[in-house]
Amino acid sequence: MAKDSYKEKLKILFVDDEEGVLRSLGRLFFDEDFVILTAPSGTSGLEILKSNNVAVIVSDQKMPGMSGAEFLEKAKRIAPDSIRIVLTGYADINAAMDAINKGGAYRYITKPWDDNDLIITVLNAIEMYKLGKENKRLTELTRKQNEELRKWSAELEGYVQQQTIDLTNQNKELQKLNTRLRKNIKEFILTFYNLIELRNKSLYIHSNNVATLVSDIVQKMGLPDSDAEAIITAAQLHDIGKIGISDTVILKNTKEFSSDEMADYIRHPVIGQSVIDTVEDLRHAGTLIRHHHEWYNGNGFPDKLKYEKIPLGSRIISIADKFEKLTFGSSAQEETENALIKIKLLLGSQFDPDMFKPFSEAARNRTTAALPEAEEKVEVEMKPGDLAPGFVLSKDVRSGTGLLLLRKGAVLNEKSIETMRRSYHIDPAKSGVFIWSKRRREKA
Ligand SMILES: [Fe+2]
Ligand SMILES: [Fe+2]
């Protein structure tokens, strides 16, 4: 559009009181592509300027009424962009200076002029006018673009601010959801854990002891928090699959199992995994539970996995589980060392040899820093007649002739108490029945 406006013919205004001069000036530009306007006086020149966009004004200095300098000064106010030239006689240089200073004339041309000089001066003025216009156009364009940019920048800033606010809110919402989710998962774990306690006290104590030991082992191994958390959860719940198994099977030594009982028993890791599998976030722990009875050499169950195919967490739980079974109810150093000797013999077959170092360190720590459960317990010898359901045995109970009646860790119920009373009557043992009693904490 700007280019098109330059295609319009530019206008040149000649102002002179002599008609002959105006004619000869017009003739000079006859062949040029301009519109030529003429005025016989300053006053009529100003009128023309009011209704025309004039690119170049050429005015005589010496005119009656209004001088060229005066006319150009007024013309400057009406058409500030036009380029002004004054025509003056040799003797009138001061007046020409006046026109330059007051009227902002670009140049003066002396009379009589040289045609070529005059044409070149006017054409240069035309170029100057065009440059001025182009400069003005570009300045305006830049101003508009800057304004647009400022507007965009402000909008963008607002948009970014809004996005930041939205993201912050979303983040807060996610954090809240995450906290709620973690709380829910913790509640699930606690519910499962309580279920074990309700089902069988000794199974609960066993799970608790294994979890405490496993927690120490993973800490010594420096495992990342997320892995450690899943392994400890799996350790807490590793035998949850046993809650569906009968008491006799839970309390019996595996060597004493009938084939049916053994079939029941070996299902507990898979049952445990299926219980946990209902909670998506516990699925990793569920996998660790499934494999806690795999043997390092592939002779375990349920999948007969071998070596590193067995998840690391399951290998850790497996060794801690065995140790807990060997030392259940006691944190005595002698029992710990005996259990470590037995476990050492099973490295490479049942257990991963690499687990032994962190495991044995954690196990030995356990003897110097007794478990809270053990701290609260004290062993008490009781007559069979004084026993009550819920008591936990601290030692195996054998008849006078050495027949194993119940294993340590068993929780007594009416039936087992009755069995013991009868046995003590028929085949009396030398000592009473040893049970764990909770030591009362003294008030601080
Ligand atoms: Fe188990
Ligand atoms: Fe276990």
> What is the percentage of strand-forming residues?
5-15%
CATH topology of the largest domain: Hypothetical protein af1432
Number of helices: 17
Radius of gyration: 54 Å
Low-confidence stretches at least 5 residues in length (pLDDT < 50)? 1-6, 367-375, 439-444
* Average of the residue pLDDT scores: 86
Structural class: alpha/beta
Amount of helix: 55-70%
What is the fourth-level CATH superfamily of the largest domain?
Hypothetical protein af1432
> How many strand segments?
10
Bound molecules: fe (ii) ion
Reported CATH architecture of the largest domain = Orthogonal Bundle
Net shape: rod-shaped
Biggest sheet character:
5 strands, parallel
Describe the structure using short key phrases.
single chain; 444 residues; alpha/beta; Rossmann fold; Hypothetical protein af1432; Molybdopterin biosynthesis moea protein, domain 2; 3 domains; 5-stranded parallel sheet; 17 helices; 10 strands; disordered N terminus; disordered C terminus; binds fe (ii) ion
Explain what you see:
With 444 residues, the chain is α/β, with parallel strands linked by helices. It has three domains: 2-136, Rossmann fold; 200-375, Hypothetical protein af1432; 377-438, Molybdopterin biosynthesis moea protein, domain 2. Helices cover 57% and strands 11% of the residues. It has 17 helices and ten strands. The chain has helices at residues 2-7, 19-28, 42-51, 68-78, 93-103, 115-199, 201-221, 225-237, 247-251, 259-265, 268-276, 283-290, 312-327, 333-344, 356-368, 372-375, 414-426; strands spanning 10-15, 34-39, 56-60, 83-89, 107-111, 377-382, 392-393, 397-398, 404-406, 433-438. The strands form three sheets. A five-stranded parallel beta sheet has the order 2-1-3-4-5, sandwiched between helices. It is rod-shaped and about 160 Å long. One fe (ii) ion binds next to loops.
